[in-house]
Design a protein that fits this description.
By secondary structure, the protein is α/β, with parallel strands linked by helices. The chain is about 40% helix and about 20% strand.
């Protein structure tokens, strides 16, 4: 699997599946979630409401993933996952890693060959970008995702992109990431 990190707008990346850093309610929110919902249009919100009515009446659990059609986005699917919120005491690194692995597993089940991820957990959920970069790249490398050929981490600024690129380099050549 090819893995890269770029600076850009995840709503404009041409991939089979875009991963959304969703909230438990699946009804849109701020940050990446809000941007994806805005770009996808009302079809995404309706698909999320249907997930809530049928499969997740209590909301999507942290670390799990669910898919919907992508609405007006250039992707086929949006894979929603909820990161742990450090600001409310959800500090389990395994749950953050599970966001990436469960999303990739679901992408493989859907037949997606290319997947774009944001920095799930960074920003409003309080995880340091360097920690997200380390956990995300390690999780993606170790994920069982037959058929997924390309993973792109789409970051909103150059500093985050550099941290992800550094995390993607072999350990012996990068030393320790600065926190």
């Amino acid at each position: 699997m090819d893995i890269e990190a770029i600076t850009g707008d995840i709503t404009r990346v041409r991939v089979d599946a875009i991963v959304n850093a969703a909230n438990r309610l699946l009804l849109g929110g701020g940050g990446v979630d809000g941007a994806i919902h805005a770009a996808a249009g009302p079809a995404l919100l309706e698909a999320c409401r249907e997930l809530r009515r049928t499969t997740y009446p209590q909301g999507l659990p942290v670390g799990e993933a669910a898919a919907t059609a992508a609405g007006a986005l250039p992707a086929t699917w949006v894979i929603h996952t909820v990161g742990p919120n450090r600001n409310v005491g959800e500090t389990e690194r395994e749950l953050l890693a599970a966001c990436f692995t469960s999303s990739l597993r679901l992408a493989a089940e859907l037949g997606a060959r290319s997947v774009a991820f944001p920095a799930i957990g960074a920003g409003a959920f309080g995880w340091q970008m360097v920690t997200v970069a380390e956990l995300a790249t390690e999780a993606v490398r170790s994920a069982e995702a037959a058929g997924v050929e390309r993973v792109t981490f789409v970051l909103t600024d150059d500093r985050a992109t550099q941290l992800f690129r550094l995390a993607l380099t072999p350990a012996r050549s990068r030393g320790r990431l600065v926190r």
